[in-house]
Amino acid sequence: xxxxxxxxxxxxxxxxxxxxxxxxxxxxxxxxxxxxxxxxxxxxxxxxxxxxxxxxxxxxxxxxxxxxxxxxxxxxxxxxxxxxxxxxxxxxxxxxxxxxxxxxxxxxxxxxxxxxxxxxxxxxxxxxxxxxxxxxxxxxxxxxxxxxxxxxxxxxxxxxxxxxxxxxxxxxxxxxxxxxxxxxxxxxxxxxxxxxxxxxxxxxxxxxxxx
Length: 211
What we know:
The protein is mainly beta. The protein has two helices and 16 strands. β2 (35-48) and β3 (51-52) form a beta hairpin.
């Protein structure tokens, strides 16, 4: 058990290079044999110990040469420039898997797979996500430009809705599946186009997802 209690409740947008649906969600290997991804999170309500995190945002750029569980990954953590020093430290501890029970959250699990963790970026995170509408917009100047959209029916052009429910998952309970585009700069340069994205409401604690 960790001695520090924390909680994050909010919304997320995750976009990777895999086919719609993302094999990782089903314990299968990545579509192209490797994984590249960006993510953003808006904390509507949260705390780490005595430090409040309400209203803050964070994000990441990540890549692995094979499947995530095989390790050798790299990550650039991105923290809201509005965060105070205590808030920055709190968010970095959460994103690094510290103060978290082993295997309880995807932050903690992913942290065990990173070989290289670049210095954190403190930047403006212009982020908007509509979970039910399956849309998102993310701009971190000098680092990430990304968007998420619904998958369209190839015959009718109507927005297609599909969901993934992970009752024992370590990231979310239910997500809406869509597609995304992203370009990144910095030590991890990605160009993702018309590939998997998911949109979810999240509720994480040091002990895992609140289902």
